[in-house]
Design goal:
mainly alpha, two-stranded parallel ribbon, Double Clp-N motif, globular
């Protein structure tokens, strides 16, 4: 997988969450998503969007699916996800911000690209949010 996207977007957060071993990652896996499928879908979505405006898919080499690890910058949408994640943690009475809150923040509501990534895998945001809640409850037992 190529690295080097200019900014971290909500779909990149989903990809990072899927690579973990926490309630969010388990919910993502339970929904039928895996990191490779997510990354490929991000790339396919970008290629489709470029094609709509007449840009050849070869331009993808300049805009990879994964952000640069050495200097990640958050997009405005990713910052909004993290703000929503904080609200989710506060709402649930948590004193820490966990991966499950970040996933819920990304899903309520999902941005356009994240919504397309989920739709391409027939994953409804509400179902994924419910799976997160189940995983969090199971982890507390």
């Amino acid at each position: 997988m190529r690295m080097g996207a200019e900014q971290v977007e909500p779909e990149h957060l989903l990809l990072a969450l899927a690579e973990g071993s926490n309630p969010a990652a388990r919910a993502i896996a339970e929904a039928g998503l895996d990191p490779d499928a997510i990354a490929l879908t991000i790339e396919a979505d970008l290629a489709a969007m470029l094609e709509v405006v007449g840009v050849p898919p070869s331009v993808l080499d300049a805009a990879p699916a994964r952000p640069r690890a050495d200097r990640p910058r958050l997009s405005l949408q990713a910052k909004a996800v993290l703000e929503q994640a904080l609200r989710e943690a506060i709402r649930s009475g948590e004193r820490r911000l966990g991966a499950e809150h970040v996933l819920l923040g990304a899903l309520r509501p999902p941005g356009p690209t994240l919504a397309r990534v989920l739709a391409r895998h027939d994953v409804q945001p509400e179902r994924l949010a419910a799976l997160v809640a189940l995983e969090v409850a199971a982890a507390r037992r």
